[in-house]
Every structure is written in C-alpha cells, then in structure tokens.
Amino acid sequence: MATTTKIRPRALVRASGGPRYAVALAVDALGTGLLRPFLLLYGVTVLRLSAPDTGIAMTVGVVMGLVCMPAVGRWLDRGARSTVVAASMLVRVVGVALLLATPTGQVWMFAAAALFLGIGNQAWPAAHAAVVATVAHGRERDAALAGGRSLRNAGLGVGALLATACLAGGTTALRVLAVATGLAYLVAAALAWSVRLHARPAAAPAEDREEGPAPRMRALLAANVVYVFCLNVPEIALPLVLVEQLHASPVWSAAIFVANTVLVVTLQVPVTVWMSRFSRRTVLALGGVLLAASYLGFLAATSLGHGWGAPAVAAVSVVCALGEIIYAGSATALVTALAPAHALGRALARFQLSTGFGLAVSPMVITGLAPHGSAALWGSLAAATLVSAGAVATEGNGGLRRLRAGA
User: Which of 14, 173, 265, 352 lies at a CB distance of 3.0 to 4.6 Å from 126, suitable for a disulfide?
Assistant: First the structure.
C-alpha cells in the first residue's frame, strides 16, 4: 500500500515543471477556452460553412491529429521535453493563422486549420505528462499531474466564460477571439520553451535503461477508450437526454457543465492525493465502477420523467464527476509508473492514441444509442465500463519488464 502524499502548493508547482511552466499551462488553457468551444460556431457563422461540413472537418482534424502520436512518442524518448510542449503550442498557432486566413465558404482551408489545431491538441497531453514525469517522481508525480489538470480546467473555464461574454459582438468578436487564442498559444510556447527541460536517459537508474519495446498495456489502453466516454457525458449525453427526452430547460445542461468544471478544478488534487494510499490500478478500477454506477443512476433518473428527472440527473452528475476525477487522477499516472524510462514517450503516445480515439468516437456512439432509449444508452455505457474496470483490475504485467511499486 502506497504512502499518502501531502499537498504543498510550492512543491506542487515545482513538481509540475516550475512557475514559468505553470504560467505557460494557464495561458495555453485560457487561449484554448477562448476558441475551442466555439470553433463549430466560427465555421458556421464567420466562414458560412454548413454545419455538417464544419463538423466533418473538425472530426477529420482530430482523427488525423492522432497520426502524429508515434512520432511524438519517439521524439520524447530521445529526451525532448519542454521543446515538444512548445511545439504542440506553436502548431496550434499555425492552425489559428490558417483559420484567420480562410476565405468565406472555403471548407478545405478550415479543415487544414482544424488539422493543425488537432495535432497540437493531441500532442500536448503526452508531452506535458512526460515533462511532469521527468521533474517529479512517485506519488508527487501523481499530484503534479492532477494539479496540471485542475489548472487546465480552470483556464478553459475562464476562457470559455470570457468568450461567451464577447459573443454578442457577432462575427467580429469571433475573429478577435481567434486572434487572442493565437497570441495566447504564442506566449505559452515561448514560456514553455524557456524552461529548457531535457531528459538525459543515461542518467536514469540502471533498471530504467533496459533496452526493449514500449509496454503494450493492451487491456489498459482498450479500457481507456471506454473510460474516456465520461468526458463527453456532460457535454453531449446529458444535454441530449435533458432536452430531447426530459424536455427540460437548457439551463440544466449549462448548470451541470459548470458544476462539473468546478468539481474538477477544486477536487482533482485533493482526491488524487487522498487516493494515493491505494495502488493506482485499484484506484483506476474503482473509478470505472463509480462511472458505471453513475450511468445506472442516470438510467434511473430519466425514468422519473419530466419534473423530477432533471434534478435527479443533476444529482447523479456529481457521482459521474467524482468518477471522472478518480479516472483522470490515476490513468496517466499508472502509465508513467508502468513505462520504463527509455520508452516513456511511446507509452504516453499510445495512451493518448486510445484517449483521442475514444473522444473521437464517443459522440457518434452516444448520439447513435440515445434514440433507442435510456436503457440502450446508459445500460450499454455501464456494462462496457464495468467490463473495462474488470480488465484493468485483472490485467497482468504482460510485456512489461517490471511493475513499479504502487502501480
């Protein structure tokens, strides 16, 4: 059983890459929050593209962005750290520049912009995790990863609120938001690059320098594809259920989304630290059980119909948020604990591939199941998540050379 980590703010910032790197993360998240939630709106209102064409271009950008992950993994395994983070931000600067240069009605340039934005968005999580894994160790690393997620969600939330307040300005406001996003990415890239963090594999412990392929982690990666559906539940599944099935006011969807963001920002670090008394694998499995329980709770809540249904869904969403927090606080930490130092980048790249794939297909799966009723939607999600939790709990070492303490 692992020793519980204590929360020390200064140590947490240091373990997360230092003050400048923390500022870079905050600026990057703020810029992302300004535009990403409204990218579809930008394509439809500013560029006069059809909603289906805009959605397809955005989806293709996300999926094609995953193609870069093997190269990102190899780059990280050669020792690059803050440079990869800066590059992921600069790539998004290119995407924003293309977006601003796209003529009205030109879907292909919009697709190219979405592609560069997708590459940056997919590369960033693995690069950031590699930075934290290089600076921090053991359970301090878990807390630092949780702190980074909390900071990022706070920045995204503030950016989205600022953008919402500016939307009354119409298309001009959206263009200004895009410019602000590009500038934020540029500033964040400069700050991240200035950290100049580079891993030296030769300085790692002897057992970490063993040659060999990156760990496959088949069960963990397959389970992650299902687990990650929880990230789209507040944004896609719950609005669909509340508005289409329960005929509730859209205010409920907005309130649940805001509450989810607040819970992640305030509880991600404390919950991750408190759960550090248990092994990461046990915690990840527990997160899956909690998510499955919340899905069954949504099934029960929707059966209450109009009136009590919406408040019940809102109450269950708190359980879902706790499951998300437990999942997010243990999944990446487990990967960094399992992967030997020489293959850390490739392991994180494979994990991000599974995350990106799950995020890409989950809207299609959720919207495909919803018309068949609540039982089809929530029952399927609960069953798949329980199976995934069982796979995580029972997975053996597989191709790993060793299982680190506390994993």
Answer: 352
